[in-house]
Fold this sequence. Notes:
Blueprint (H helix, E strand, L loop, with lengths): L1 H8 L5 E5 L1 H12 L5 H20 L1 H7 L3 H4 L2 H28 L4 E7 L6 E6 L1 H5 L3 H30 L18 H4 L5
Antiparallel strand pairs: 1-2, 2-3
Amino acid sequence: RQELxxxxxxxxxxxxxxxxxxxxxxxxxxxxKWIYSPxxxxxxxxxxxxxxxxxxxxxxxxxxxxxxxxxxFTAQNWIYLGLTLGLTKVIHEFGHGILCRVEKIGVRGMGxxxxxxxxxxxxxxxxxxxxTLKGISKIRMFGAGSTNNIVxxxxxxxxxxxxxxxAVPTGGPVLAGVYQNFSAYDAGIPT
Length: 191
């Protein structure tokens, strides 16, 4: 009853506890705990350094591929931005939840904050167990969400450069087609 009263009295957000955290995190933990190993953290740091070096060395190429403000913030892109922001928040919160399992901390709840804009997600670790953490374990638990965001960002950034680098220049122009009754068509240019 007190939890219901607390939820109704909070005017900033309505908490909807939509999933059972134990079942989901127990399934995810053995599959994803490697993400928080020292080797993975070291590899991600090297990957982030490589991405930073790539941007520094190829800054002109990087800048030329960026869209302008008006190209980026079109009506169609707002949908993609909203989906991306939502996915980023989910990945962030699952980072906290999975690391709670790695550090053997119980999770009281996971869910969606539906009365905030943009929509939010939460993972609620057991407060008493969380308070027993000391040092690096506590830092890892609080930093897990941001770590997930950085890792996913670096992977996407490197993938963007790798995919952009697959475009191989040709020896001459490439024509996809010509319009009828225009000069290229009249000249007999093959496609």
